[in-house]
From TrEMBL:
Location of the Flavodoxin-like domain: 4-169
Name this protein carries in UniProt: Protoporphyrinogen oxidase
PROSITE patterns from the UniProt entry: FLAVODOXIN, FLAVODOXIN_LIKE
GO molecular function, one term: menaquinone-dependent protoporphyrinogen oxidase activity
A Pfam family: Flavodoxin_5
UniProt xrefs under PANTHER family: PROTOPORPHYRINOGEN IX DEHYDROGENASE [MENAQUINONE], PROTOPORPHYRINOGEN IX DEHYDROGENASE [QUINONE]
GO biological process: heme biosynthetic process
Taxonomic source organism: Natranaeroarchaeum aerophilus
Length: 185
């Protein structure tokens, strides 16, 4: 059994849902899992107290959550000296399009290069459009962003693009990696 930390940044909760699902997969493999919203308890999330760490963030207007960027930079030595993974949610990963895939990869590269972090696993997941949760201005902005990305501009309903099988496979793959790595230490 290993102790896993999952730290995430979310706007409307989709990254929180993904973090929770990853946590369930890890817990099913009898690991101890702590899932933390970066906005709630930054100081309680020191990587040193854990065997492995996953960091997750959605993309809002071309950037990760500021608090997540800061978390990785501040905790770089703790994060990079244990098995680690990064996962990202965006609309760019919601469509099967080469330019969009490149865009999603670029968001990750920018974060990792700035922090000088090389996680062992990276997960790129489609996010969600929660028109029902956006205020007037955000709904307008998201309609514009969605028009160029998924094309889903009917604001009378929500859209979810997250492939939960992919999320579970990512969690299982990282768990397997950590289990092998820590067994050999
Ligand atoms: C205000 C806003 C801006 C966004 N900007 C982008 C963007 O620039 N590129 C992109 O691929 N997705 C963008 N998205 C889509 C989000 O990444 C997607 O909705 C994701 O599911 C949000 O996850 P969260 O609920 O955990 O924040 C944006 C979403 C919102 C609400």
């Amino acid at each position: 059994m290993s102790r896993f930390l999952i730290v995430y940044g979310t706007g409307e909760g989709q990254t929180a849902r993904v973090a929770a699902r990853i946590g369930e997969v890890l817990a099913e493999r009898v690991h101890e899992v702590t899932v933390i919203d970066i906005e709630d308890a930054e100081s309680a999330a020191a990587p040193e107290q854990f065997d492995a760490i996953l960091v997750g963030s959605s993309i809002h207007v071309g950037a990760h959550h500021e608090a997540i960027r800061e978390y990785v930079e501040t905790n770089l030595s703790g994060v990079s000296t244990r098995p680690s993974a990064f996962f990202q949610l965006s609309l760019s990963s919601a469509v099967d399009d080469e330019a969009r895939r490149a865009e999603a990869a670029r968001y990750v590269d920018d974060l990792l290069e700035a922090a000088d972090w090389n996680p062992d696993r990276i997960g790129l997941f489609g996010g969600a459009l929660r028109y029902s949760k956006y205020g007037f201005l955000k709904r307008l902005l998201m309609k514009r962003i969605a028009k160029n990305a998924t094309g889903d501009v009917d604001t009378s309903r929500d859209y979810e693009y997250t492939d939960w099988d992919e999320v579970e496979a990512f969690a299982a793959d990282f768990a397997g990696f950590v289990e092998r790595r820590l067994k050999n230490e």
